[in-house]
Amino acid sequence: MSQPERRCTYDPLVELMRRFESVRPQETAADPLEGLPIEDRLKRHIIDGLKKNLERDLEEALKRYRPLEIVNDILLDGMKTVGELFGSGQMQLPFVLQSAEVMKAAVRYLEPRMEKSAERSKGSIVLATVAGDVHDIGKNLVDIILSNNGFRVVNIGIKQPIESILKAAEEHKVDAIGMSGLLVKSTLVMRENLLEMNERGVHHYPVILGGAALTRAYVEEDLRALYKGRVYYAQDAFEGLRIMESLANGQASGTSPVGAGRSLSHRLPDSEPDLYRFDGVRSDVQPVQPPTPSFLGTKRRDRFDIFEIYRYINPVALFRGQWQYRRRPDQSNPEFDRWLAENVQPIFERLQRELAPVFQPKVVWGYFRCRSEGNDLVVANPEGGEVRFRFPRQRDGRRLCLADFFRSDEDYVAFQAVTVGPEVSRYERGLFESGDYRRYLLVHGMGVETAEALAEYWHQQIRKEWGIDDQEPESMKLLFSAKYRGARFSFGYPACPNLEDQKGLFELLRPERIGIELTEEWMLSPEQSTTALIAHHPQAKYFNIR
Ligand code: B1M
User: Fold this and answer.
1) How many whole angstroms from 6 Cα to the centroid of ligand 1?
2) How far is CA 468 from the centre of its chain?
3) Fewest Cβ atoms nearer than 10 Å: which of 31, 257, 478, 499?
């Protein structure tokens, strides 16, 4: 990692966060745990995320307890309190992760002193992101929470086919299987995996499924009806933990009575051919005079002032979405905003400086002649040939279809592909592997939102270059609500759900020139990259297909 690291004996970020955090005492020169019985002191280490004097206190506990007793009866009790504080909204996720860091450090210290035969885990699980899916962070958060709450986790990584998952389950003799995935397609892969497990007669494994594209009903009704074993839906890492706890206690049921499942209703929008078939009825979108771009074809840029891009980071998405800072139940909205401004904004500003050398923003963009044909958009490639995109049309209501934002005789469309480079993902992986969990979450969030910010920033540059910047919003808040002329559509989102359309975009833009590759599963590498089609039509706005 090329980031210049100042050597400190403490983590200044933690200091900063602590200075204002009411839940936790400050780690100062004075020992805040002094005078407490050793059991309480160790629990406070975990709950308050304090590493200072941890080994000294573990040594003291070892005079009275066996290492396994310390883990199971004292430290895990601390983690239980952490889970409860998080559940009741009194502890924020970054602090939960910091407690997990201390737990990991304590277990690492005690492990060599444990008797070899001691089975110290409460249960075990293989965790994997399913085939075709590259999303890592959700699964890794589940790993952190489970492994630091006494479970043995075999985390086999991303893009894992069912063969590898089952092989790992057998090899490591685990009690359960956890599958993760954010893509719509992953929900179908999970279904196929369960059918495959039925087929192979390995349905003795309870399966836990998680990821944004799943719904509770899909898992607990549809998938439960088809899997011969037990299957559970975990909305977040803590629900995963609760399920593992109940499996360990023999309390989880996870099966539906025969015939209780609904029909298999979970379908991909792009698996519904009707939505793509043009029946001659367009929406109410009126044709407009297309603005002529200043050039046709593509350009690239790889020099940016990263601080200019940071200005386009949506703090709500970063603080609440990625870092998951939540309003405490006893806080009013203005109090929470003040709390964020005092406690989280400084972390954000500090990370901007620290991560500046890690980001390598690059952009490729271009303007093309195009025309609409029913549900299709046909784009002329100046280097020869045409690229055809087919979009779904709303069945009811306005019957919108993305193609309607373009004239059927002659029009123009822009495309962009942006990346903040591979280094930030490499850096965050190192943080995860070394157990620096809190920073892992913070850096990942910065990576995601800087990629989003670059897309927002470059879309604005395109509007300026194209001369359609007559409706620019006055504030960043309005910019984040897309209050400008035209719209940016990313393939994979509901209005243009086919990830395969990335192929056409790659033909037109050739983002390989700035280091963006398209994987076999139509994902982008580096991870923190996005692509988009840009429409100039004043009526163009994001819409859902149903
Ligand atoms: Co994009 N993206 N994205 N994206 N992105 C999704 C995944 C999408 C669902 C959004 C949507 O349509 N509403 C959609 C995919 C839809 C599809 O399949 N067709 C999508 C798309 C389309 C895309 C692009 C293709 C868009 C484009 O450029 N054309 C593009 C592809 C990028 C690539 O290929 N590399 C893209 C890009 C990006 C960003 C770079 C901007 C960014 C970062 C992505 C990344 O981290 N790799 C991003 C983001 C942030 C998202 C959303 C908004 C959030 C993902 C996230 O960070 N979640 C996402 C929509 C969504 O999830 N709501 C979306 C936080 C994470 C901690 O949660 O992983 O769900 P999660 O894990 C949770 C729980 O689900 C649960 O516990 C975890 C922790 O609490 N859990 C388990 C998960 N697994 C479990 C297993 C268990 C138990 C619990 O077992 C025991």
Assistant:
1) 33
2) 33
3) 257
